[in-house]
Design brief:
Blueprint: E1 4-5, E2 24-31, H1 35-46, E3 51-54, E4 70-71, H2 79-85, H3 88-111, E5 119-127, H4 133-145, E6 150-153, E7 164-173, H5 176-189, E8 193-195, E9 200-203, E10 207-210, E11 214-222, E12 238-250, E13 260-263, E14 269-273, E15 278-287, H6 295-308, E16 311-325, E17 331-334, E18 342-346, H7 352-368, H8 389-412, E19 423-428, E20 431-437, E21 443-446, E22 458-460, E23 465-467, E24 474-475, E25 481-483
Parallel strand pairs: 1-16, 2-3, 2-11, 3-8, 5-13, 11-18
Antiparallel strand pairs: 4-7, 5-7, 6-7, 9-10, 10-11, 12-15, 12-16, 13-14, 14-15, 17-18, 19-20, 20-21, 22-23, 23-24, 24-25
Helix pairs in contact: 1-5, 1-7, 2-3, 3-7
This protein binds flavin-adenine dinucleotide and FE2/S2 (inorganic) cluster (FES).
């Protein structure tokens, strides 16, 4: 493969913002500069609140910068499941919220003249398998009944035959990087404040504390994908999932699909046009920390792309992660029933461009005391994971298994150094140590115990990172945080003895 391992959306450079260096005050503080955080920030600023947004890295450096760019209410197959787990009223609210989210993005794009290639186009869920036609028919029936104007079709523009497809018109695609940069510029031009490279490490009775300064605020919105606060126990109701994407240029521009597609069957394939001749192809998802060699997943996607389209070049490839909610619906609202101050949004199930947008609309209404009829359905402290106990029990048994077995393995396992270019958890003077041996001489050693809740990290060969299989935190070989929920870096260890390095004050 000759591609650049980089997201196509991160090619654009946006403005940068200073870190927080002092204690400041605002009406609301938003933690996280992805689509959920920035939409919340701009909507609250429009309502006249003083708003500060804090981002650990850079705007759009989280999952929003690594998506397929689809804005749709057609989330593969979901409405029949929601109607079964909850009821048709909840399914209707969910469909409405996603549809209004697309309108909200369009409104912001128009109002602020954001050049982000926003285009309306149809979305499809297709199957190439005859045994899944019934499933699609059922999904289309329920989606239609709850008010989504879907159509069941037998043919599509795809260069391979399908058995059936659900089509939903008037959905959209856009460039998430340009959209977020545009929102950030307008937000700050309108008096909002953004602080980058400032990691929130906790809340205080008055607001939030970062690794550099504090913000005092009446309202706190945590928009960090999985909340960094454990008090709401949302880490037990969501599980981390990683997916892979290729951006391929096609030899024949005319063969670029005009619509956005996702397969009903596994392995899932997600397709979306991006630009004049670029097709995004996604899939090969897996539970984080469960594939020691995810590099192969890019190759599987490339083979699929070449078998189905006349590929000129693999231009970009990247991977990213999101959290799947145990009961199928996102969690949006107060962190827990005893505080009306801290709000969270998570469980976007790889559809957070709309779910994150309507989360922001919900936060605005809650803070302004406005009626919002979606709110109750998505409340984070609902107990409905018990209505779908399979996912809930399975994912938490999986965490428990990792917590115990990975520990045992580390104490009873390897004692030799990994080969150059490789990484392993290996015992140094009896202490389990996560070592990446960059070259013959250069070794980067950190504690293998995740600073979130103590599971053992595992090496991700494709991304050269240490990933935690329990709740998806990720770290560089030097122990810096790539993704939360962890807010503390991993301790640096001595590669020979496994002891904490004295000069590492972290
Ligand atoms: C491969 C893939 C493809 C996808 N494609 C689509 C799609 O086509 N359509 C769709 O609707 N959805 C899609 N999704 C899902 C969607 O991208 C996400 O659900 C959505 O972007 C989440 O947005 P967010 O703002 O909540 O989180 P993020 O974009 O992850 O933003 C969270 C931000 O919080 C920051 N942060 C974290 N911890 C801290 C801290 N302690 N202090 C300060 N800041 C912190 C992070 O640095 C990050 O910038 C896809 C997901 C994946 C994995
Ligand atoms: S992310 Fe929770 S223990 Fe590592």
């Amino acid at each position: 493969m000759s591609e650049t391992r980089k997201s196509i959306w991160r090619e654009v450079s946006g403005p940068t913002y200073p870190p927080l260096t002092e204690k400041i005050k605002a009406d609301a503080v938003v933690v996280g500069g992805g689509i959920t955080g920035l939409t919340s920030a701009i909507l609250l600023r429009e309502a006249g609140l003083s708003v500060a947004l804090v981002e650990a890295d850079r705007i759009c450096s989280g999952t929003t910068g690594y998506t397929t760019g689809k804005l749709t209410a057609l989330h593969r197959l979901i409405y029949a499941d929601i109607a079964k787990t909850f009821d048709e009223k909840t399914a209707a609210l969910f469909a409405e919220a996603n549809s209004r989210a697309i309108d909200q993005v369009e409104t912001l794009v128009g109002k602020y003249e954001i050049d982000c290639d926003f285009r309306r186009l149809p979305a499809y869920t297709y199957t190439t398998r005859t045994d899944l036609v019934d499933t699609l028919e059922k999904e289309a029936r329920i989606a239609g009944k709850i008010g989504l104007p879907v159509e069941l079709v037998g043919e599509t523009e795809l260069p391979f035959p399908v058995e059936a497809a659900i089509k939903l018109d008037n959905q959209a695609r856009f460039h998430p990087g340009r959209y977020l940069n545009g929102l950030a510029e307008k937000f700050t031009a309108n008096g909002g404040r953004i602080f980058e490279q400032s990691r929130v490490i906790g809340t205080t009775s008055e607001g939030v504390r970062t690794d550099r300064g504090e913000i005092e605020a009446k309202h706190v919105i945590i928009a960090t994908l999985l909340p960094i606060l454990d008090r709401g126990l949302l880490f037990i109701k969501n599980y981390p999932w990683r997916s892979y994407l290729l951006a391929v240029s096609l030899q024949d521009k005319g063969s670029l699909p005009a619509g956005m597609y996702i397969s009903a069957e596994d392995p899932v394939r997600s397709l979306s046009p991006a630009g004049e001749d670029i097709l995004l192809i996604g899939g090969e998802s897996h539970h984080i920390g469960h594939d020691p060699d995810p590099q192969n997943r890019y190759q599987v996607l490339e083979n699929w792309a070449r078998n189905h389209f006349t590929v000129k070049k693999i231009e970009f490839s990247w991977s990213s992660q999101d959290f799947l909610p145990a009961d199928g619906l996102p969690y949006i609202g107060y962190l827990h029933p005893f505080t009306k101050r801290i709000m969270v949004a998570t469980g976007f199930g790889k559809w957070g461009l709309t779910r994150g947008t309507f989360a922001a609309m919900t936060f605005r209404d809650m803070i302004l005391g406005k009626e919002n009829h979606w709110r109750k359905a998505f409340t984070p402290y609902r107990l409905s994971c018990l209505k779908a106990p399979g996912n809930f029990i399975h994912s938490n048994m999986h965490v428990g298994r990792h917590f115990i077995i990975d520990r045992l393995k580390a104490y009873t396992g390897q004692t030799s150094l990994p080969n150059p270019g490789e990484a392993a958890i290996t015992k140094r003077d009896g202490r389990p140590t996560a070592i990446y041996r960059k070259s013959e001489e250069e070794r980067q050693a950190i504690s293998p115990v995740c600073t979130h809740l103590g599971c053992y990290v595992s090496w991700n060969k494709a991304e050269k990172s240490w990933d935690c299989p329990c709740h998806g935190s990720r770290f560089t070989p030097e122990g810096e945080i790539l993704c939360g929920p962890a807010v503390k870096v991993q301790a640096k260890l001595d590669a020979s003895t496994g002891k904490k390095q004295k000069k590492d004050s972290r």
